[in-house]
Amino acid sequence: MVCFKKAVSPVIATLLLILIAVAAAVLVYVWVTGYASSVTTAGTPELQERIKIDAVGVESATEVHVFVRNIGDVQVAITDVYIIDAASSNVVGHLSTTTGNTIGPGEVKEFKVTEINPSLEEGRTYIAKAVTENGVEASLSFSYSA
């Protein structure tokens, strides 16, 4: 009795080895990126800071009230609040804060921008932007009407 046993051809064997190597590389990549992102997130406070501008109140053409909420889980310090002309991207108002600028988690704080030059024009759109000491930003657009 003659028994014929066929082996796997060398081409198919090579393709199977390449497939196994690629699958192993993908698994290592997924594991390394997951580990690296968990280490990075835990170590940098700017990734834990989250702020939001709840509202903008226009008192007059030269005074704007910006209400900033801390929606993160750590205390934040607001260093700058800007009023920007949306059409030209020019900064028309700026408030630089050094004291009394910290906001606890879940709290809202009001910032008054009074140095607006040129004064706000009726019907124009502006952007209020708040920046923390770690560079986290929040912005909200608003229109001025007298």
Could you characterize the architecture of this molecule?
- The protein has 146 residues and is an alpha+beta fold.
- It has two domains: 10-43; 48-143, Sandwich (Immunoglobulin-like).
- It is built from one helix and eight strands.
- Strands 3, 4, 5, 7 and 8 form a five-stranded antiparallel sheet that branches. A three-stranded antiparallel sheet has the order 1-2-6, with no helix packed on it.
- The termini are far apart.
List keywords for this structure.
146 residues; alpha+beta; Immunoglobulin-like; 2 domains; 1 helix; 39% strand
Q: Which helices and strands, and how do they pair?
A:
Layout: H1 10-43, E1 51-60, E2 63-70, E3 76-85, E4 91-96, E5 102-103, E6 108-113, E7 125-132, E8 137-143
Antiparallel strand pairs: 1-2, 2-6, 3-4, 3-5, 3-7, 7-8
* Helix count, DSSP H or I runs of 4 or more residues: 1
CATH topology descriptor of the largest domain: Immunoglobulin-like
- Secondary-structure element sequence? HEEEEEEEE
CA-atom Rg in angstroms: 28 Å
Largest sheet: 5 strands, antiparallel
Helix content: 10-25%
What oligomeric state do the depicted chains represent? Answer: single chain
CATH H level of the largest domain: which superfamily?
A: Immunoglobulins
For the record, the CATH architecture of the largest domain stands as Sandwich
Number of strands: 8
Which consecutive residue ranges, at least 5 long each, have pLDDT under 50? none
Shape: elongated
- In round numbers, the mean pLDDT is 86
Task: Provide the β-strand percentage band.
Answer: 35-45%
CATH domain class name of the largest domain:
Mainly Beta
Question: How many domains, in number, for the residues?
Answer: 2
Which structural class matches the secondary elements? Answer: alpha+beta
